[in-house]
TrEMBL record:
This is Dynamin. One of its GO terms (molecular function) is GTP binding. Pfam families: MMR_HSR1 (PF01926). Residues 55-182 form the G domain. InterPro entries: GTP-bd, P-loop_NTPase, Small_GTP-bd, TRAFAC_Dynamin-like_GTPase. The chain crosses the membrane at residues 458-477, 483-500. The keyword Cell cycle does not apply. It comes from Ktedonospora formicarum. Keywords: GTP-binding, Membrane, Nucleotide-binding, Transmembrane, Transmembrane helix. It comes from the Bacteria.
Amino acid sequence: MPKAALHERQQEILQEERRIATELQACLAGFVGTDAHAETLRQVTSSLEDLFLLVVVGEFNSGKSALLNTLLRQEVMEEGVLPTTSQIAILRYGEQRTIHERETRVQEISYPADFLQNISIVDTPGVNAVLREHEQLTEDFIPRSDLILFLTSVDRPFTQSERLFLERIRSWGKKIIIILNKIDLLRVKGDLAKLVRFVRDNCKQLLGFQPEIFPLSVLKAQQAQQETGTQAIALWNESQFGKLEEYLFQTLDAEERIRLKFLSPLGVMQRIWGEAQEAVEQRSKLLAEDARTVQTIEEQLEVYREDMEQSFSHRLGEIENIILNMQVRGNNFFDDTIRLGRIFDLIKSERIRHEFEQEVTGDSAAHIDAGVQELIDWMVEQEHRLWQNIMEYLDRRRQTSVRNDENMIGAISRQFDYNRRTLLQAVARQAQNVVQSYNRQAEAEQLSQDLRYSVTQAAIAGAGGIGLGAAIVALVGTAAADVSGILAGAVLLSLGLYIIPARRKKAKQEFEIKMAALRKRLHNVMQEQFRRELHNSMQRVRDSIAPYTRFVRTEQKRVETTQAGLSRIEKDINVLRIEIQGPQPKTEEVVQEAVPHAVAQPKRAE
């Protein structure tokens, strides 16, 4: 549409539509697969510079080419009972009839019809399922149109394929005029009114719009153009073709064409906006599920930590009970041994030491080592189960993701879901690798060595390479050495009344202090080692899902930004649409012409 033909506000509207289209494309730039939308937006905005575009659609053999030839008063378009139109044909004004290929499967036909100076007409292939490539050609061209003439026939009005096609083109927000052709086939009076009502009701109920319907007979209109006199007039009146021409060349004046042309890109942008909004909402739902996946893993880790700490406290208590039992046996040993009645036994220090080892320490060393080893095995097994549970959970989520992929809306979500499922699979593989790579014995030995080293270094200086249990016994065994010190007493009474009880009390006190210190050191060292290993275990899980977690956060921010942009664009589209539509024009009854168009008016194509 030349800018010179537009007043100032119309030019502003033109620029506003281009701005919205640019913002919509920028808003979708973060989504993969929007090339088709970009091309569509480019076409509809660039078409604002062109003439008003009238697109004729319908099933093959519905009379589209014949309709155009009747408007042109000349057989310009090829007609036939087979789907002859296999290309998009654009009719434009020209000083003479010419045909040339403009792009792939699109040809441009110039013809000297006066009305083509204001309107370009597009003839499309049939939309039947017989030739699917023809239907695709038609649908690809619909977004460029400003007004659609949809031809159907009285012998098969509003078929299933027509309804589906109307539903698709209606979603582009286009104004649709329905032409009910071949009324000459009707033989019963009143059938035409029933058919018109049938088409109108179906459009309203199934498609949600109230169309303008023009019943006519292209055949009788063509016959009228071939006759003269009263016969031509009669045929023309019977064809009712004049009502359609009056609408196209009078009702559809310059102001109405401008209004429809401005509304056309808004309808296209609204359609693209709707698809994008639906895809973004679907993506948002998937990301919410992904966020819940991450949160669920974190919750599992927290439960894992609590269960491990609770179980560890119980297991550590069992090891500490070995030391407590040693303490009880030691006190009993001192009470039974360090007394006057065993004065001669006390002289034999080796015997006392042997009894101490037998009665107090006994197999405590072996029990402590076994308890620690059992604790290590338990920790390794629990981490193994943690990874197995996470792997099974992620596998279920990955299967859910595959099912959701079938419901993704449009191509703009495919790459997103592919990336998302790839990350889920990577996490699952990492979990599987950890589970499969666990050398339980090697892990246990390594952790055991760490514990032995920490305990022996903290509790016993110079213990060397002896076992953990043996090192503890070596620590408490020094209490037995103090027993030999009682031989320093010389007076039996003193021994009985003062020295032996005092040394027994002192030995018990020192033994209890050593046991308490040992128990505390053992508790602290093992607690420290446990917490370190528990932290490392949980961190290994977090590290493995870190790429997936970062992906989810990044995509969520992108979705939020896109949703905010789409919200602004929707508001701009609605505001501009209200301004362009303005007050709705009143519907006037079209008076049937008394004189056939072919006779009373000069030909439109000289």
